[in-house]
Structures are given as structure tokens and as C-alpha cells.
Amino acid sequence: MEELDALLHQPLRTQLVAFLAGAGEQTFSDLKRQLEVSDGNLDAHLKKLLAADYVTVRKESGNGRPQSYYMLTGTGLAAMQAYVLALQRLLPISPNGEHAPVFIEPRLAD
Amino acid sequence: MEELDALLHQPLRTQLVAFLAGAGEQTFSDLKRQLEVSDGNLDAHLKKLLAADYVTVRKESGNGRPQSYYMLTGTGLAAMQAYVLALQRLLPISPNGEHAPVFIEPRLAD
DNA sequence: TCCATTTACTCTGTTTTGCAGAGTTTATAA
DNA sequence: TTATAAACTCTGCAAAACAGAGTAAATGGA
Hints:
The structure is a homodimer.
Chain A: H1 11-23, E1 26-27, H2 28-35, H3 39-51, E2 55-60, E3 67-72, H4 74-90
Antiparallel strand pairs in A: 1-3, 2-3
Chain A binds a DNA duplex through residues 10, 12, 27-29, 37-41, 43-45, 59, 61-62, 64-68.
């Protein structure tokens, strides 16, 4: 059985990684607002992504309020792409209607 | 933010739906063996998929040991395809290397 | 016939995970 | 100097996942 990256297979972390990939560097506050999540929860999930090197932080202070900028790493993007690919391979018919090569035609209930 | 089907965004259920899509009708025991999962846990997740009509059961008895055959529904396959599509849209660069139209080039840390 | 076995559950308890909010620190702006 | 904001940390609760024991129904073999 194809394995799915447990770190990415979680709603908030999937959204975090995808959002960072699309939006580039974001502050803690930006992420909190955009994903509508409590700061405790955001912090916990960011820590897991940091520990896996899927995300990096850059901390600024001195020229305004202290700010932490979070950014996706190449490792993180690669992991996300591998994750989506793994899901596609699990599915016998790809979402665009084409058949994945390794699977048979799905048989469905009525 | 694009939403992800919470029912599918869980490792075991994702695997269950994908496996049923590829392998067709499967017994409870088959699923237990293939996915290497405890029967209590398998039962719990199958119930959720049944409740959402992503899966159906057909029960046989009288001509052998009682057997329950589980099968993916059209609803279930459609949900899975929509789920994978949603993930692809979240990602700024699709896994095959092509850019998704709505997103900008991802900016990454070093 | 009855005993063991298999299937497919149900139930219970434990562990893990997710999550919210209160409190803390540092720093700035008023 | 006080108030406010950012970015945490910590604590506790709630929900989810999970394993395994127990159970009913049915069969197959002795």
C-alpha cells in the first residue's frame, strides 16, 4: 500500500503548506487571520512543520514590532507534491477523467 | 480557502476509499488484511463511510460463513475525485511540474 | 450432536491528536 | 508609564483514533 505523509495528511497542515506555497513568506499574524485558527493551534502545527524542515522562520525586530516570517522550503514543496502524486496513484481514475495506468476500472455499487 | 472533505482527509479512510475504488468489492476480512488494521478500528471507519453513502454493504449468509461485502459508491468515487482536485488546486505547482493557473510562482526558503 | 472456528460486529478503555484560551515575554507606540 | 501588539508557551479539555476483549450467528468437522 502506498503510504501518505502523515505530517501533510492533516487538514490544517495541508492548508498551511499549500497557502505558504502560493502566497510566499507570511507572518504569524497573517497565517492566523487567513486560516482562521487560534494562535495556540497555529503554533503547534507550525512547530511540527519546522521540525520536519518543511517550513523555515525568519525573525525580525528592532524596526517595528517583532515579526516572524514563515516560508515553505524546497523540502516542504517536494513533500507536498509527492503527497498529491501519491493520492493520484491511489485513485484508479484520475480527477481529470484519465485512467491511472496501474489500476483497473473501478466497480461501483448502484 | 478551499475546503477539504474531512471524511476523506484521514489516512485510513483515504486508503479504504482508494483501495475499494481499485479493487472493487471486498470483504471485511480482506480489508482488515490488506490495510493491516484492527477490526474495531476498521469497523468504526467503515461506519462513517457507510453513513455518508461513500460505501455500501451487501451481507451474505446461508452458503458459507457470513460475509459482508463492501463496495465504493458513485458518490464515494466522486467525493474522492473532488478531494484530489481540491488538493491540486491548493498547490501552486502541480505534481507533474505544470503550473496551476490561479497561483503565483511559489517562493521558497533556501 | 456438539465443539471449535470464523465472521462481523459491539463495547470499553487507552492513547493520541487537535484545539482554545489564559498567561508570559519582548518590544513598540502613544 | 501605560497600553497594545506579536509571538509564543502552557494547561486542560474535547474529539478522534485505535487495539483488543467480548459476543452472536453460522458453519464445518469430529
